[in-house]
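Summary for the steering committee. One of the milestones for this cycle was to obtain a three-dimensional model of the protein with glycinamide ribonucleotide bound, which we needed before selecting residues for the alanine scan. The sequence and ligand used are listed below.
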Amino acid sequence: MTKQRVGVLISGRGSNMKSLIAAAQAADYPAEIAVVISNVPGAGGLAIAAEAGVRALVIDSKSFGKGADGKRKFESALTAELKAARVDLVCLAGFMRLLSADFVNDWSGRLVNIHPSLLPAFKGLDVHAEMLRAGVKIAGCTVHYVSAEMDAGPIIGQAAVPVHSGDTPETLAARILDEEHKLYPECVRRIADGEVRLRDGIAVLSGAPASGALANPVRSPR
Ligand code: GAR
């Protein structure tokens, strides 16, 4: 089996990256983590990746200067490393830099993100507090292809969790994060297995979800 080569981009603690690395350790998983890149020096995820024997490096986004020129230079450094690692798929995992339309276009159909809400609702930052303020009763997470607009693009998979009365942003975030850690590896598996096709701007899935995914019917992308 030729495994798809995945590059994971992080900015922080890297728990989603960790779940991808763990899934990729299974012999029958169709993808391998070729490289982890953090745009933030000292991000917690870097040590986790290195400990797991995955190549981990820093491309400090701040070191390229501000403005469009700095962003362009940062993104070409990113692309150079991803290409050097012969990456087929780029997974954003808590990567907190907005990418330019050029970068998104260059990696079109090969760039995915995880976001802690049921998109297209609750884009952006502080979504857990916003969901509680809005009084939603169901929350969740989404894995999607990335388009130039923030937290947007064809939806590959979603998982739902209940919102409990008495939830704080922290308790809700923890409940959603547990689902993120299952959803992301499952979606990457399905992409790598060729079960996800883009048709008219929508991700269409074939094949069956892994048996564990059935525990949450909303995590069974159809
Ligand atoms: C995750 O909850 C992820 O969904 C979110 O950041 C967190 C990163 O945690 N991403 C976004 O909000 C993207 N808009 P992690 O570093 O432990 O994976």
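Key point for the committee: The radius of gyration is 17 Å.
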